[in-house]
Specification:
By secondary structure, this protein is of the alpha/beta class. It is 39% helix and 17% strand.
């Protein structure tokens, strides 16, 4: 299984952008394009549906040897033998999640400020998402935090756990995000809604590998 420590491109299968009948093909496209891990995000959906979708995606990620992360639901992550679970600021403590999933599963935390990033590191999360950097429909009602703290968080928290910058990142602003200090990113609609998801994923991965211009 590929380590999250060397991951640069985090893909999310978001039911806000993907129809249930397209889940498998979109997952395959992101994998073919070279994402380093995949999360299933299904806000406001029935738990039975999320469980079903997770069971479709998990074996695809396992075959590709990339981590599969379930958003929000540690119980489902454990049930489908996912590699990890991702929780938000309002979803409780790491300890509470560990009581469900055990000590080995990857657990990530969404953070929206330097203070939250540092707290997540201190609490013991395996990685953080940091953002939203730009306004994005996937984080409706949450103000964008901008780019000014990216370098600091990368140079502090990011030396100990992976920091995945997130929120409104697309191919046309990826260079700006890299110039601000980001080394690893999450891209959602920029990949899922692309005319050619495989090519767009490959382009993003190559640009991340090349580093800031």
């Amino acid at each position: 299984m590929r380590s999250i420590d060397t991951a640069t491109l985090y893909g999310i299968i978001d039911l806000g952008y993907v129809l249930p009948e397209d889940l498998v093909v979109r997952t395959q496209q992101l994998i073919e394009g070279g994402v380093d891990l995949i999360q299933l995000r299904a806000k406001n959906q029935e738990l039975d549906d999320i469980r079903t979708w997770a069971k479709l995606i998990q074996p695809l990620c396992q075959e590709a040897e990339i981590p599969f992360i379930v958003n929000d639901y540690p119980e489902i992550a454990k049930e489908v033998a996912a590699d990890g679970v991702h929780i938000g600021q309002e979803d409780g403590t790491l300890l509470a999640v560990r009581e469900i999933v055990g000590s080995q599963m990857i657990v990530g935390r969404s953070t929206h400020s330097v203070e939250q990033a540092e707290e997540a590191l201190e609490e013991g999360f395996n990685y953080i998402g940091f953002g939203p950097l730009y306004p994005t429909p996937t984080k409706a009602g949450r103000a964008a935090i901008g780019l000014q703290d990216v370098s600091y968080v990368q140079d502090t928290v990011g030396t100990q756990i992976p920091v995945f910058c997130i929120g409104g990142i697309k191919l046309d602003n990826l260079a700006e995000v890299q110039a601000a200090g980001a080394e690893s990113v999450v891209i959602v609609s920029g990949l899922l809604s692309a005319d050619d998801p495989v090519a767009s994923t490959q382009q993003a991965k190559a640009q991340l590998a090349a580093g800031p211009n």
